[in-house]
Amino acid sequence: MRYANITGWGKCLPPAVLSNDDLGSFLDTSDDWIQSRTGIRTRRISHVNTSELATVAARHALAAAGLEPTQIDGIILATASPDSLVPSAASAVQRNLGIPAAAVFDLNAACTGFLYGLSVGSALIKAGGMNRLLVIGAERLTHYLDWTRRDTAVLFGDGAGAVVLEASEAPVGLLADKLGCDAEARDILAVPDSGTCRTRFAHVDGLFEVNFEGQEIFKRAVRGMGEAAAVVLDQAGVGPEHIDLLLPHQANVRIIETLAKKMALPPEKVMINIADYGNTSAATVPIALCEALERGRIRPGALLLTAAFGAGLTWGAGVIRWGERVTPLGRSQAALPPCEHSALELLAPAIEGCRRAKRET
């Protein structure tokens, strides 16, 4: 039987840091208010498009796996913020990496996107259609935020994370997964006036409204992730006590802590890095995975549990058996182009544009 082993990993975080105090300089908020409700201290603001973030993360993942880009058979890019509607952002990553021929596509399951991509990529390898795949989660969600709204402006950040999947005969990689969508509540977390729902020529302001019902999202997120986690643990034939590390979607520290408590997992078995990056949507899980490896929190043969939820309301969970290697085979010098502006300077046009649009409506 074929399995899909995770052999490489990498991340990319833009250099411009937006602090809670920065947000307080133009919103009615404060560091205490944000941290007490979300656990977030800072987040990153990108000066480049999503595909560039994804490319840098992919280069680091390839180096960690000891592979050249031309050895990759496919790229799955999970994102809700692609560079353009068409062509795909994944095709830009393919071009940037110099891969002459590979199957590439974008996948949008919002914040659950990386888990969906990991499931699809693992299935492609297990079926024998491909031997090596890049699965990337990358977002530039701050490009779409309404910077006059405190409830959503404080939550999100930009970034990317990537893994390399390789065919293996050993029982490693994604051993069990459960994906789903609570579509009845799809409108409580949404950007409704977008895509073909957006009336052409009726908007000259570039303002996107975000539906965000926090309390209802909290309830459904904990329930969806908890139920999915229970299913995959049963599929894998293990219990919560066998899990070495929980890698949850980083949306809100309260959600993470509630999920961990529900599963009776102590803090030392839970990876949390939301304080530094906020919610990077499809990128949170792979970024957390990279940092867990960097901090020595994943040992050879470790059993990992990952869970996420996102707009839709998509949800998912997976059990991963880590392989024998926890250190990269190589390192890449890949980096984003220099950023000459602070996060506030990068956002200044958007902040003013949002204010102007609100005055005119």
TrEMBL record:
Its main location: cytoplasm. Keywords: Acyltransferase, Cytoplasm, Fatty acid biosynthesis, Fatty acid metabolism, Lipid biosynthesis, Lipid metabolism, Multifunctional enzyme, Transferase. InterPro entries: ACP_syn_III_C, ACP_syn_III_N, FabH, Thiolase-like. GO terms for molecular function: 3-oxoacyl-[acyl-carrier-protein] synthase activity; beta-ketoacyl-acyl-carrier-protein synthase III activity. It is an enzyme of class 2 (transferase). Catalyzes the condensation reaction of fatty acid synthesis by the addition to an acyl acceptor of two carbons from malonyl-ACP. Catalyzes the first condensation reaction which initiates fatty acid synthesis and may therefore play a role in governing the total rate of fatty acid production. Possesses both acetoacetyl-ACP synthase and acetyl transacylase activities. Its substrate specificity determines the biosynthesis of branched-chain and/or straight-chain of fatty acids. Homodimer. Belongs to the thiolase-like superfamily. FabH family. This is Beta-ketoacyl-[acyl-carrier-protein] synthase III.
